[in-house]
Sequence to fold (117 residues):
Amino acid sequence: MWSVCQRSATRCDAGLVPHHEPTSRYGTAIFEAYIDFSSVPWRSGVLEPKVKELIYCAFDASATHLYVPGLKLHMKNAIGYGATAAEIMEVLEIVSVIGIHAVTTAAPMLEAALAAL
Fold:
């Protein structure tokens, strides 16, 4: 139950996952550079694998990314590393407010502009 990044970090040939396919089209050198970069957290650091997968969940669930296939993969991996449903829900709760500043900033501006009409 290794994540793609772990497989890449150990150079295990498990094949491409669907979201790597577009990157691989740019050629071997670029794809290898991407794999080397994205596998850094799995080659070093002190965070346990469950925490790393929860961070990936946060990226994929954020309003600025919204990548459902990655979110599903990393939720499954996090559960495999011992994450609970409550931990995953807490991550989703935290990222659900990303982008709210756009509303809180834009709403008063819109209100002022409409009032000026």
Observations:
- The chain has two domains: 1-45, 46-117.
- The radius of gyration is 19 Å.
